[in-house]
Amino acid sequence: MAQTTLHRVHAFTDRNEGGNPATVILDADQLSSEAKQEIAHKSGTFRTAFVSQSTVATVKIEFFTPQAQIAHSSHATLAVFSLLREQGKWQSSEATKETIDGIRKVYFENDQVFIEQKSPVFHAPLDIWQAYDEQTLLEGLNLSSRDLLTPLQPVIGDTGNPLLLIPLKNAAVLKKARIVDETLKHYSEYLDVVGCYLFSLDVKQQGHDASARLFAPRFGIKEESATGVAAGVLGGFLYEFINMKKSQFSIEQGHYLQPPSPSLLQVKIETVQQEIAHVYVGGYAQLDTSKIINY
Fold it and tell me: Per its UniProt record, what Gene3D superfamilies does this chain match (predicted)?
């Protein structure tokens, strides 16, 4: 039996509270894929990041949910680089990470870590799966078409991990949403998305741009308190579809969890001739605990 150290880091905290916990394993070069999956299953968090040496970037990071490996996780990346910063292993203002999805930039600004994402691409669900039925999906979330933010419709957005964005008309509707049955899991498989990111422009705190929730039962995630990849997609959606032509968005998440875990995600948009060229998602993080486990 072998041992490794698990660092639990809360990413995207809001005024030193809340955030989304991720597990970080440093010096993971000798771990097999099977061992990584076993550790991720035991970690107690929805994302586990394994950090090893890279010949093409500052570090190599592999991301696992309790069920499977995934291409990218912003909140786990934020956890990794915040921990490296705290341990004195990352002292410059910029870095890069190697993942199975390519090499991404990371930078440090005003005690926050920002992670580069791909420019978002959007698709109608019917373009992916012709049997898609909006009403069936919404009923599986305790919603109906009357709850949508008209004239907008659900859309698939992708900056690395595709998600189904669902625009809702107010905070009351966002609050009542829940997973009713297996519909979302099945639709996520058919559409090949991580899950759905429901959002409203009706926010808890003045100055924020949207309030959101993530459901991803396909990967064993009933609800998540902060999802950087999804926030990046949402920032692009707000810019392109709601005509919010600004360079930074503040996305709140985690307020409707029980117990609540308020999180704040900052999305920066860089454009060329009003077309999105780069997306960066960032925020604060705090180390919670470190412990040794057997696997």
Answer: Diaminopimelate Epimerase, Chain A, domain 1 (3.10.310.10)
Q: pLDDT tens for residues 179-234?
A: 999 999 999 999 999 999 999 999 999 999 999 999 999 988 899 999 999 999 99
**Position 157: which residue type?**
G
Alpha-carbon torsion (126, 130, 135, 138), positive or negative: negative
Could you tell me the pTM of the whole model? 0.89
- Do 126 and 261 belong together in one domain? yes
Q: Residue 160's domain is classified under what CATH number? A: 3.10.310.10
Number of structural domains (the chain) is 2
Are 141 and 228 in the same domain? yes
Report the 10 Å Cβ neighbour count for 217. 18
Sign of CA dihedral 4, 5, 11, 14: positive
In a shared domain, residues 53 and 134: no
pLDDT tens digits, 153-167: 999 999 878 999 999
Beta bridge partners of 111: none
Please name the residues in contact with 202: beta carbons below 8 A apart, sequence gap of 6 or more.
169, 170, 171, 174, 211
Classify strands 69-70 and 59-64 as parallel, antiparallel or unpaired: antiparallel
Burial of 67 (0-12, 13-18, 19+ CB in 10 A): middle
Short-list 291, 201, 287, 295, CA closest to 21:
287
